[in-house]
Write a structure and sequence with these properties.
about 80 residues; mainly alpha; 5 helices; about 0% strand
């Protein structure tokens, strides 16, 4: 599998988690800064994995953080 496909799948996981579980906009996750960069990450056009921390920071509690990270690992393993 191509690396770009892996980034796309990870980005889609993060996007879905943001919309469904966190119920936040790109602006809210990015705190009004560089929304285009985060959007690029969610669409697989950016390999900057430091964006993952933004999703973890937005989780409401430790249980939600674990849920996000377990889902991320399952997504990567499924690739």
């Amino acid at each position: 599998m191509m690396v770009s496909t892996i980034y796309y799948i990870i980005g889609q996981y993060c996007r879905n988690y943001r919309l469904i579980r966190l119920r936040l906009t790109l602006k809210e996750v990015e705190k009004g800064e560089n929304v285009k960069a985060l959007s690029s990450f969610e669409h697989g056009r950016s390999s900057n994995i430091t964006h993952l921390l933004k999703y973890v920071e937005q989780c409401e509690n430790n249980q939600q953080k674990v849920e996000f990270l377990e889902g991320l690992v399952a997504t990567i393993e499924g690739v």
